[in-house]
Sequence to fold (285 residues):
Amino acid sequence: MLKCREVSHLVGSDEVRAASLRTRLEVRLHLLMCRACRRYASQLLALGRAVRRRSSTGSAGGIDGLTSRTLDAAKARGLMDEPADRHDP
Amino acid sequence: MTRDEQLMFERVKRRDPAAIREVVEELMPQVLRMAIAAGLRREHAEDVAQATFLTFLESLDRFEGRSTIRTWVFGILFRKLSETRRDLRKDARFEDVDDVDESRFDARGRWVRPPRATDEGVFAAELHRSLDACLELLAERQRVVFELRERDGMSTEEICNVLGCSRTNLGVMLHRARAALRSCLEARGLGRQDEC
Fold:
């Protein structure tokens, strides 16, 4: 029988996805019987959903600056096809 | 490649600035997180991320579209990260030891303090309020690995291919990140006091 400690690790590490059929069944059986682990597993799923719903800003802050700097560097090295300058006769 | 990927590939090959901007905007967050997850400090990670896209654009003529743009970019990133391994932080190694569980379970492997009950709706609302604060408390590498997996939806294989880590290494980091996040949320009052 799997212990709560093992189930929490299998679920939290995603190892359960790559586990053997037998292990996956044991996890499922444990979750059926153990309310605490069931809560744990469903809270981790909710965590994932919450992060996905979030815009791409947040903790990846400063990305826009990095993106502009990268595009500027690419332009400076002639790596991008520059649109014709309309003000130039 | 899908039809959209094929169209994008052709535009990027022509060095269409709008297409290139789109590619950089879409992939930059993942490339940067990956570089941080590999153990680079923020500033160094930004340099590597920028260099990855410049190399991508420099090597465009050799890119024949047999893989997707995304795979090609991550391949370049993998080589750049391999080159910088020696400059990695001292704590950049992946650990297998799992001490996160020691205090959470008793000697028989059972929960010392079982997770509190949560109502689906309330949980979502409180999560929304506290998530950023709790993410900030994670070690940076843990946080970005969690984000690569959950926010960017990258598979374990895809992440490990770029970072050169094993499934077990990555699993330990994910497990720690999720356990720490959940405890942080619970400590901030998430969930009802248990009735059982």
In short: Residues 17-37 of chain B form the longest helix (21 residues). Chain B has eight helices and no strands. Chain B has a mean pLDDT of 85. Helices of chain B lie at 3-13, 17-37, 42-58, 69-83, 120-137, 140-150, 156-163, 167-187.
